[in-house]
Design goal:
CATH superfamily: P-loop containing nucleotide triphosphate hydrolases
Enzyme class: transferase
CATH architecture: 3-Layer(aba) Sandwich
Oligomer: single chain
Number of strands: 5
Catalytic activity: shikimate + ATP = 3-phosphoshikimate + ADP + H(+)
Distance between the termini: 30 Å
CATH class: Alpha Beta
Number of helices: 7
Radius of gyration: 17 Å
Strand order of the largest sheet: 2-3-1-4-5
Order of helices and strands: EHEHHEHEHHEH
EC number: 2.7.1.71
Largest sheet: 5 strands, parallel
Structural class: alpha/beta
Subunit structure: Monomer.
Family: Belongs to the shikimate kinase family.
């Protein structure tokens, strides 16, 4: 669906902030899958992972993705949403997927300056720098596979939102032109 924008990328790549900027500008609903998971379960992600493990969290996350993929909305996904092939296929088929590509250094700096970092469970038990570097290296091919467009999210979030907005409007314009180019049915 051309009017559904899905943002993927590692945590702290700016998906939620950029998504909210876009939603306000485009007058579309904004959905953060991490927030929906927490509301539906009445638990933080850390609590879900501690009590049920990563596999169960990923299953819940995938179910939520399918529930919230609506026409005319902007969806910020959890950083690991791309781990599942089913989720990758779903996103590619249900919206325009933008990968907010960031360096490990940018992610680490953003996480260190964010007080909510302590609420995010470690995936590996490594230092934050080692963990983020490893995650980006492992998941980058999955983000690339899923995305229709890759955006440099090391920039200011407003600039990232502007880049996505420009691409989105070009796609809408092209779709409208294509629709007008279809000859009318004749009897």
């Amino acid at each position: 669906m051309i009017n559904t924008i899905i943002l993927v990328g590692p945590r702290a790549s700016g998906k939620t902030t950029v998504g909210k900027i876009l939603a306000a500008h485009l007058k579309l609903d904004f959905i953060d899958t991490d927030e929906v998971v927490q509301k539906k379960t009445n638990k933080t992600i850390a609590q879900i992972v501690d009590e049920q493990g990563w596999d169960n969290f990923r299953m819940i996350e995938g179910q939520i993705l399918k529930e919230v993929t609506l026409a005319g909305c902007i969806i910020a996904t959890g950083g690991g949403m791309v781990i599942s092939q089913e989720n990758r296929n779903h996103m590619k088929n249900k919206g325009i997927v933008f990968y907010l590509s960031t360096s490990a250094e940018t992610v680490v700096n953003r996480l260190k300056s964010n007080p909510a970092v302590s609420q995010r469970p470690s995936l590996t038990g490594l230092s934050i720098t080692e963990e983020i570097t490893g995650i980006i290296k492992t998941r980058d091919p999955l983000y690339q596979e899923t995305a229709h467009f890759v955006i440099d999210a090391n920039n200011e979030k407003e600039r990232v939102a502007q880049e996505i907005d420009a691409i989105y409007h070009t796609l809408l314009k092209d779709a409208a032109n294509d629709a007008m180019a279809i000859p009318p049915l004749t009897e």
